[in-house]
Amino acid sequence: MPQDSTYKYQVPQGDTVSHHSGKKASPAAIDTALAGIPSAAPLKNVQVQLTPEQQLSHELGNWFFGALFLILLVTLFFPRLFKRLKLLFYSRRAKAVYDDRQPDYHALLLQYLPYYRNLAADQQTRFLQRTVVFMTSKQFEYVEIAPEERMPLLISATAVQLTFGLEHYLMEHFEKIYVLHHDYHYGLNSVPFQGHVAHDGIYLSWSNFLKAYDDYHDGDNVGLHEMAHALAYVNFNVSEGRDDGFHDRFIRFSSTGRKVFDKMQDELSGGFLGSYAASRYEEFWAVCVENFFERPTSFKIQLPELYEAMCLLLNQDTLKAGVILNPIENA
Ligand SMILES: [Zn+2]
Prior knowledge:
By secondary structure, the chain is mainly alpha-helical.
């Protein structure tokens, strides 16, 4: 329809009737002013001649809105496809970083992460690739601490360690990871925090994060602890970042976990997992993760059914060669 293009009509200089006087013009004044513009009426007869630049801009605009509409459709109706496209985007962005920094990153992971040291060479490659994709998909915010290259790498590696047996490992809901220096106060709590997870991001204190790797076998690891909270959050509090396998298997894990947790509460004793694990089921889960990775042999001896439930849930067992129990579709 010809009138659809009238919005591109170029208003002649001086057609600012409502602004010249600094006050709104009356309808009569506008009519008078428009009457003085020959091409302003009748609009349906206006023949618009677009310059090549305008034509191009018009077409680009159509393409842009078309692409936006397509993304919206895919997001709403094909969430799995959208996840895959997003992963592809992150993977491509991460590839350049990986190609450039792989030897240094490999050396850093070997230095700090016992879990990485114990992986076979092909598993190390997969681990490092996942770590770089995770790292480049997040925004790291440094709060009163100077950034170091190892910080985002090691923090991302901790998340990848926990999710190494899962198909979806990016925890997409969390776009930001905050790195603080030491213990910090949060909200109205009087007890200082080493880390926490909130709706807006994952918070970690760097001094405590590093300390956990100084003694990797004491069952105390704030990085793994907070990533355990983050993984539960993306699977049960929000939908972005959910791993369907983990989500469904957690019910089976809880049929064993709840029994152990209830017993700990009844006996007012934490036993092998410690009293903090008996405080709330969320903390029980996070402490299970810390001990699963740092003290697997003792965990298996002390709480064999719970250890087995953890293996099935996370699809990995660090006491077995190859670590991963069932092959993962998205390596
Ligand atoms: Zn906790």
